[in-house]
Amino acid sequence: MALGFRTAVFGGIGALALSLLSISAASAQELRLLMIEQVGCYICAAFNRDVAPAYEASPEAQFAPLIRADLRGPLPEGVTLTSRPFVTPTFILLDASGTEVDRLIGFPGQDFFWPYLNQMIDNALADTTG
């Protein structure tokens, strides 16, 4: 999709928004956003302060609920990554089987986070719907 998910929902682009909303609830629950973080990470703290509360209430969270894991701890059960993260925060989009489909390393602020995340979700939904 040329336009991001957030643009489609909030920008009033009717046909695109309707197509996204018509995706079944099962498809929406197939994605998860894994945040790799660690204690003492000031960038993780900035994300948790500035973005996490808005994320939980966002349309993006409906398509990819946020889950978390510690950088040096075990991954959630069933998660398969292309490589072990080494930077915090790292955001990894997972499909229904828990396999990594895309990754954002770091958090350079919400102005970059939202468009990149939306592109990740758009790409994943396009792969699952056609």
SSE topology:
Elements: H1 5-10, H2 14-21, H3 25-28, E1 32-37, H4 42-50, H5 52-56, H6 59-63, E2 66-70, E3 90-94, E4 100-105, H7 110-129
Parallel strand pairs: 1-2
Antiparallel strand pairs: 1-3, 3-4
InterPro entries: Thioredoxin-like_sf
Organism: Pararhodobacter zhoushanensis
Protein name: Thioredoxin family protein
What do these coordinates show?
InterPro entries: Thioredoxin-like_sf. This is Thioredoxin family protein. There is one protein chain. It contains 7 helices and 4 strands. It is an alpha+beta fold. It has a single domain (25-129), classed as 3-Layer(aba) Sandwich (Glutaredoxin), CATH 3.40.30. Strands 2-1-3-4 form a 4-stranded mixed sheet, covered by helices on one side. A hairpin with a 5-residue loop joins β3 (90-94) and β4 (100-105). Residues 5-27 have low confidence and may be disordered.
Offer a few descriptive terms.
single chain; 130 residues; alpha+beta; Glutaredoxin; four-stranded mixed sheet; 7 helices; 4 strands; 44% helix; globular; Thioredoxin-like_sf; Thioredoxin family protein
Q: Summed up, what is this model?
A:
This protein has 130 residues and is an alpha+beta fold. It is 44% helix and 17% strand. The protein has a single domain (25-129), classed as Glutaredoxin (3-Layer(aba) Sandwich).
